[in-house]
Design goal:
Bound molecules: thiamine diphosphate, magnesium ion
CATH architecture of the largest domain in chain B: 3-Layer(aba) Sandwich
Shape of chain B: globular
Structural class of chain A: alpha/beta
Radius of gyration of chain B: 22 Å
Distance between the termini of chain A: 48 Å
CATH superfamily of the largest domain in chain B: Thiamin diphosphate (ThDP)-binding fold, Pyr/PP domains
Number of domains of chain A: 2
Oligomer: heterodimer
Largest sheet of chain A: 7 strands, mixed
CATH topology of the largest domain in chain B: Rossmann fold
Number of domains of chain B: 2
Structural class of chain B: alpha/beta
CATH superfamily of the largest domain in chain A: Thiamin diphosphate (ThDP)-binding fold, Pyr/PP domains
Helix content of chain B: 40-55%
Strand content of chain B: 5-15%
Strand order of the largest sheet of chain B: 1-7-8-4-3-2
Number of strands of chain B: 8
Radius of gyration of chain A: 19 Å
CATH architecture of the largest domain in chain A: 3-Layer(aba) Sandwich
Chain lengths: 326, 369
């Protein structure tokens, strides 16, 4: 066992998946010799060869479409989109084909592929390198949407995603790629793709979040504890299908809920979580649900990105608001 | 490969008027040899290179974000921009500041952009030019649309757009070429073929012998030019622009150059390419080549060289100061230009951003990069 970063955990899971199943292959821009611009595929071409780690031409729509074709013919492609800001041409293939190949052919053909992409702001990247597109994918029937927030969860969830028989969108927060290290055992053990993770227990309020906002939320939990407020932190991790039960049980216990995400507020995935709680646990609520999210603005360039990303202060403030209500 | 029926030559001849050692070709017209203009080109290319060096050192010292230098590719931007009229429209990629500077973009604007400040795209000059385009190839159809608009409005203006070799693999590029061919829009596509798309070499991008031949399927003229030869670039682009302006439709120009630096400051090219190849490419670079010619013509001296470097360094220093002392941005800037008028329903979000910005004002809130 050794302490590794989130991006190293991605690499470890990919290597594991390729080692155990010859049908698994990787494709994407600059993933071969260069090992990916974040080094997620570092060393994998040297180890598994050019036929299984393919440096593609610069064509996201093509990458996704090729992956659909490969998957339908029995391979298990793991495609990388270099940044989620460039994922949009791929969406045609994902929505019109990957997500519905099984349904259209009544199960005759399937699409066991993974589309990995770094996402989120906070690394001083250039324009179009800081998007958080999870809600768009979560809206699409037939897809799984996963967002890891720690090395261990990245490893276990990515392994599960590659082994899963259906298409998975795997969104890796760039801000967390090298933020911290964690012991990860390369034991091939996967994590469930339909369960939230309770990262911290607390009786006063439930804070639901995922991806890059998890560390901020945990930091907010520490601050709030100093004030005597104990929050329960839920990392959704697998946004679709959504494990509503875990969230409801927590909200029924605490009676208060704050939802935190980096993506813009309107029609963000937080709206879905809030709606589920409103439909199924309204009478348990002691205060209105609160969302702490990115603003409804174009994610700004580096100078202002800290103003955009929900801060620990904003999360603390959001929790205080639900504590003060009622 | 020979002529196909439509009369296009698939095996396009590479246009070169100035050899790597600085000898002018007999084919160069008198106007192509206009020394005064060539000195101007030389100054412009040098200015860009001195800027690039400074920008990289700013990035290395934490004063600039990720930056894409144009090292070795200065001739394409300068030769093309010099062939444009001020009123024409540039639709750039993200590595085209050689052309942008020629068209009047301030260096401080370029620095603001890469320094993470949207004001860098609000050009003081050439206000009809498009901003940098990072999502590769998405600019190409926009260039066709812009050209269509100019044509529809009967304006005497043309569009010049840049794309990389990697960009020509993208569907948007083919769609753009195809539409331009059908509608005969006044647009000139220039491929800066620098041999690399980050770590991906040209031969992994396309099995086509040349990128210029992609013009053939779109029913337009394709040309291949030595992109390190500013004289040839200027000639070829000038002709394409003249043609577009007189209703002759689009042209695709592949300019062969070489990316002498890393892809960006976030890249480490030593991971994937042999430094020996790069060293060999330095013998073909555009600035030394033109200098050799100017010197051989008695049109350039050591004193002029020293003066030029001094003047460029001074300009760069002034522009860097302007960039570093730009007024600080506050959170309102995120909302200011979102819509023509911020909808009332979003005002509370602007308030909330202000509230939390103030809270972290002495910390990292009002962030500079
Ligand atoms: C659609 C899209 N995909 C991926 C990227 C990431 N990326 C930025 S530059 C680049 C390579 C571009 O190569 P090329 O078109 O040859 O231009 P060059 O950088 O060499 O000037 C890539 C893959 C992007 N910006 N846009
Ligand atoms: Mg290139």
């Amino acid at each position: 066992m050794s302490e590794i970063t989130l991006v190293e955990a991605v690499n470890l899971a990919l290597a594991r998946a390729m080692g155990e199943d010859k049908d698994v292959l990787l494709l994407g821009e600059d993933i071969g010799v260069n090992g990916g611009v974040f080094r997620a595929t570092n060393g994998l071409q040297a180890r598994f060869g050019r036929e299984r780690v393919i440096d593609t031409p610069l064509a996201e729509g093509g990458i996704a479409g090729v992956a659909v074709g490969m998957a339908a013919m029995g391979l298990k492609p793991v495609a990388e989109i270099q940044f989620s800001g460039f994922i949009y041409p791929a969406i045609d293939q994902i929505i019109n084909h990957a997500s519905r190949m099984r349904n259209r052919t009544r199960g005759r053909l399937t699409c066991p592929m993974v589309l990995r992409s770094p996402c989120g702001a906070g690394i001083h990247a250039p324009e179009h390198h800081s998007e958080s597109p999870e809600a768009m994918f979560a809206h699409m029937p037939g897809l799984r949407v996963v967002a890891p927030s720690s090395p261990a969860r990245a490893y276990g969830l990515l392994l599960a995603s590659v082994r899963d028989p259906d298409p998975v969108i795997f969104l890796e927060p760039t801000r967390l790629y090298r933020l911290f290290r964690q012991e990860v055992e390369d034991d091939g053990v996967e994590l469930p793709l339909d369960a939230c993770f309770i990262l911290r227990e607390g009786a006063d309020a439930t804070v639901v979040t995922w991806g890059a906002m998890v560390p901020e939320t945990l930091a907010a939990a520490e601050k709030l504890e100093e004030e005597g407020v104990m929050i329960e932190v839920i990392d959704v991790a697998t946004l679709k299908p959504l494990d509503v039960e875990t969230i409801l049980r927590s909200v029924e216990k605490t009676g208060r809920c704050v939802i935190v995400h980096e993506a813009p507020r309107t029609a963000g995935f937080g709206a879905e979580v809030a709606a589920e709680i409103a439909e199924r646990a309204l009478y348990s609520l002691l205060a209105p649900i609160k969302r702490v999210t990115g603003y409804d603005v174009v994610v700004p360039l580096a100078k202002l990105e800290k103003q955009y990303i929900p801060s620990v202060d904003r999360i603390v403030d959001g929790v205080r608001q639900v504590m003060e209500a009622s | 490969m020979g002529n196909i029926e439509m009369g296009f030559d698939l095996h396009m001849d590479l246009v070169q008027l100035l050899s790597p050692s600085g000898e002018i070709s007999k084919a160069a017209s008198n106007s192509a040899r206009d020394i005064e203009r060539l000195v101007q080109f030389y100054r412009a290319m040098t200015r860009t290179r001195i800027f690039d060096n400074k920008a990289i050192s700013l990035q290395r010292t934490g004063q600039l974000g990720t930056f894409a230098s144009a090292l070795g590719q200065e001739a394409i931007g300068v030769g093309a921009a010099a062939a444009m009229e001020e009123r024409d429209v540039l639709v750039p990629s993200y590595r085209d500041h050689a052309a942008q500077f020629y068209r009047g973009m301030a260096m401080s604007e370029c620095l603001l952009y890469w320094g993470g400040d949207e004001r860098g795209s609000d050009f003081k000059n050439a206000r009809g030019d498009f901003p940098n385009c990072v999502p590769v190839a998405t600019q190409a159809p926009q260039a066709v649309g812009a050209a269509y608009a100019l044509m529809a409005r009967k304006e005497d203006r043309v569009v010049v757009t840049f794309i990389g070799d990697g960009g020509t693999s993208n569907g948007a590029f083919y769609e753009a070429l195809n539409m331009a061919g059908v509608w005969k829009t006044p647009v000139v596509f220039i491929i800066c073929n620098n041999g690399w798309a980050i770590s991906t070499p040209r031969e992994l991008e396309s099995a086509a012998e040349t990128l210029a031949q992609k013009a053939v399927a779109a029913g337009m003229e394709g040309r291949q030019v030595d992109g390190n030869d500013v004289i040839a670039v200027h000639e070829v682009v000038r002709r394409a622009i003249d043609k577009a302006r007189s209703g002759g439709g689009p042209t695709l120009i592949e300019a062969l150059t070489y990316r002498l630096g890393d892809h960006t400051t976030a890249d480490d090219a030593s991971r994937y390419r042999d430094p020996e190849i790069v060293r060999a490419q330095w013998t073909r670079e555009p600035i030394a080549r033109l200098r050799a010619y100017l010197v051989s013509e008695g049109a350039w001296s050591k004193e002029q060289e020293a003066e030029l470097h001094k003047a460029c360094a001074e300009e760069v220093d002034r522009e860097v100061a302007a960039y570093l002392h730009a007024s600080p941005l506050n959170s309102d800037a995120m909302f200011e230009h979102l819509y023509a008028k911020l909808p009332d329903t979003l005002q509370w979000q602007r308030e909330e951003a202000r509230r939390f910005a103030q809270r972290s004002a002495n910390g990292d809130g009002n962030g500079h990069v």
